[in-house]
Amino acid sequence: MKKILLSVLILITFLTIGYALRSLISKPVPSDQLSEPTNSLPNTQQELAIITVQPVSQNKLSPSDVRTQIVSAIFSENYTPLSSSMTQEVDVRVEGTDCCGKIVYTEALKKLNDLRGGGTWSFVDSDERIGKLKTKSPNYYVDNNAVVGVSDNGYAVSFQLNNDGRIQAISFSTDFEKVLQ
């Protein structure tokens, strides 16, 4: 009788331990207990953000709403929300390089990461630097539907919208002065 009781007790102990281990293994870790991402893996975090982009819809958008969204994305350096305002393919042009031509919008979002660290941005049309850009490079920085910005660190960007209010082209430079030459 003692052997049976001891066997049952051992069986209950193993089942309890097994259940506890299974609960620990399958339990998700709360986000506040996760470690901060390190700078050694910046692309991993960016690529994960790209996976969660919104599909491009076919509805017409308000250019003023898209402008607000663009300015917010540039200021926050979080470009993912722009996905819902882009065409399927976006013509991306980086001043002084051969990059990029027409690329899918998810790749265009990744390319916008080059604008990180631009500093303080201005999207005010009366900004003298924007006026110079429009005069020197009108094909890329002048358009009734263009959203043009310049930063205090010498960056410049132009988002050109199509007739549906969607971002169809992006031109930018990390050296504003080169555009003016």
Overview in brief:
Helix content is 41%, strand content 19%. The protein has helices at 2-26, 42-51, 63-76, 105-111, 128-136, 138-141, 176-180, and strands spanning 86-94, 100-104, 121-122, 146-151, 156-161, 167-173.
Give the SSE layout.
Blueprint: H1 2-26, H2 42-51, H3 63-76, E1 86-94, E2 100-104, H4 105-111, E3 121-122, H5 128-136, H6 138-141, E4 146-151, E5 156-161, E6 167-173, H7 176-180
Q: Can you summarize the main beta sheet?
A: 6 strands, mixed
CATH T-level fold name of the largest domain: Nuclear Transport Factor 2, Chain: A
Helix content: 40-55%
How many separate domains? 2
Walk across the major sheet and give the strand order: 2-1-6-5-4-3
User: What gross morphology would you assign?
Assistant: elongated
- Rg, rounded, reads 26 Å
The overall average pLDDT, rounded, is 76
Please state roughly what percent of the residues sit in beta strands, choosing from under 5%, 5-15%, 15-25%, 25-35%, 35-45% or over 45%. 15-25%
CATH class annotation of the largest domain: Alpha Beta
**Low-pLDDT residue intervals, each spanning 5 or more residues:** 23-55
Structural class: alpha+beta
- The helix/strand order is HHHEEHEHHEEEH
Number of strands: 6
Query: Separation of termini?
Result: 97 Å
CATH architecture of the largest domain: Roll
- Total of helices: 7
